[in-house]
Amino acid sequence: MSKKTLVETTINGEAVEFLCEPRQSLLECLRDVLELTGSKEGCLTGDCGACSVLVDGRAVCSCLMLGVEAQGKNIRTVEGLADGTALHPLQQKFLEHASLQCGICTPGILVSATALLNRNPDPTEQEVRYALAGNLCRCTGYDKIVRAVLDAAKAMKSGARPNRAA
Amino acid sequence: MHAFNYESPSTLADALKLMKAHGEKARPLCGGTDLLIQMRAGVRQPEFVVDIKKIKELRELKFSARAGLRLGAAVSCIDIAENEEMRRNYPGLTEAAHLIGSLQIQNRASVGGNLCNGSPAADSTPALIALKARARIAGPRGEREVPVEEFVVSPGRTVLKPGELLVQLLIPAPAPHSSDAYLRFIPRNEMDIAVVGVGASVTLDGDKVKAARIGLGAVAATPLFAQKASESLAGKKLDDAALETAARLASEASSPIDDMRGTAEYRRHVTGVLTRRVLTIAAERARKR
């Protein structure tokens, strides 16, 4: 029953293999097996978005996906946004706009915002708010987050670049 | 979560073999946005989880102006929402799929899964009822088709027998001068479970309604086809009186409960309000086609 399965996947651009039981969520695999603890455990019901990661470019709640389902998938976590010490423009703008307080929602919000800007480099405020509807923040009241995402979009249009294809 | 076996068959035949072999101990997995939550809560504890996302028939989204739509049970809500043909031909179903949960949920969840989960408040089910969708089911005794309004039999339970899988949803091609719409009432803008959901399709003949179908969600133990309300519109102009009659009949067809989302009385009232609005939107869209 609890036989472990080998899962072959790509995480943040690198081929990664890991062993997991079917009952382990992708979030558990990332945090407990691979020690990628940037993705946070919040509600475990798909409401808060703190565990958001990109799977083949789409934001998903990693708490609602099994680790074994990651077989053959291309996964990007918040750890894959910066290149060494060079921050992704979204990360830079979150700092400049003070878009976080406790920070537990921040990795998930950065991931959702990355998914948005990859598809829509010039979003309206409403589009940003819609794209982030699945990410709850209890500290900021969202305004600073939305401003940072809009500002990052502007910066990226005028040349600031994510260092890898996030 | 409890320990279970995971299988991800790549053909329908292999999936059906697994479903037959494990019967009630098996549960299909698509987006997992309901199943994983239920497994974590101990509500469902399947010994075998059968991932159906790799099966061609279940991933198919094929529209033709003659045959209509074949919508695989595993097609994600986002793939529906971003499909031009879906937006053009079935805007109501498309908007229903595009308001289930967050984008994170829509990126994983499917309309087929929304139906199979059997919630009375499933957003896409009233939209499917409005479109006269049929569920194509495969199982140990071959295939069968069930009208979508008969698919859910009680909260969380469906017509699927042990060993059976929902393969596709079959939806007729839109008739000339027809369209559909879906509206949900929730007390916030996004990310909530319907207090009431109403889907409608309208086919016009000049300035009169040729046919209409109204599906109701979250106002009974299962999603409902509001037959009397739908039939009351045939041959009528969609004026205030016709809308008022349809709204009243839809409201009478509902049998809601009191819960934290709203009282029964409130839900009956909102059923009428949304019925009026959704018929008006569907008719406006139909006029342009």
Brief account:
The complex is a heterodimer of chains A (166) and B (289). Chain A is built from five helices and five strands; from the N terminus they run ββαβββαααα. Chain A is α+β, with helices and mostly antiparallel strands.
Report on the architecture of this protein.
The complex is a heterodimer of chains A (166) and B (289). Chain A is α+β, with helices and mostly antiparallel strands and 166 residues long. Helices cover 31% and strands 15% of the residues of chain A. In chain A, strands 2-1-5-3-4 form a five-stranded mixed beta sheet, with helices on both faces. In chain A, helix 2 packs across helix 5. The longest helix of chain A has 15 residues, at 143-157. The model of chain A has no long low-confidence stretch (mean pLDDT 95). Chain B is α+β, with helices and mostly antiparallel strands and 289 residues long. Chain B has three domains: 5-50, Uridine Diphospho-n-acetylenolpyruvylglucosamine Reductase, domain 2 (2-Layer Sandwich); 58-171, Uridine Diphospho-n-acetylenolpyruvylglucosamine Reductase, domain 3; 178-287, CO dehydrogenase flavoprotein, C-terminal domain (Enolase-like, domain 1, 2-Layer Sandwich). Chain B is 35% helix and 26% strand. Chain B has helices spanning 12-22, 35-41, 56-59, 77-81, 84-89, 91-97, 103-106, 111-116, 124-130, 227-231, 240-253, 264-287; strands spanning 5-7, 26-29, 48-51, 61-64, 68-72, 134-139, 142-147, 152-154, 157-158, 165-171, 178-185, 196-205, 208-217, 224-225. Chain B has a five-stranded antiparallel beta sheet. A four-stranded antiparallel beta sheet of chain B has the order 11-12-13-14. A three-stranded parallel beta sheet of chain B has the order 1-3-2, covered by helices on one side. In chain B, helix 11 crosses helix 12. Chain B is globular, with a radius of gyration of 19 Å. Classes of the chains: A alpha+beta (166), B alpha+beta (289). The interface between A and B is medium-sized, with 33 and 29 residues.
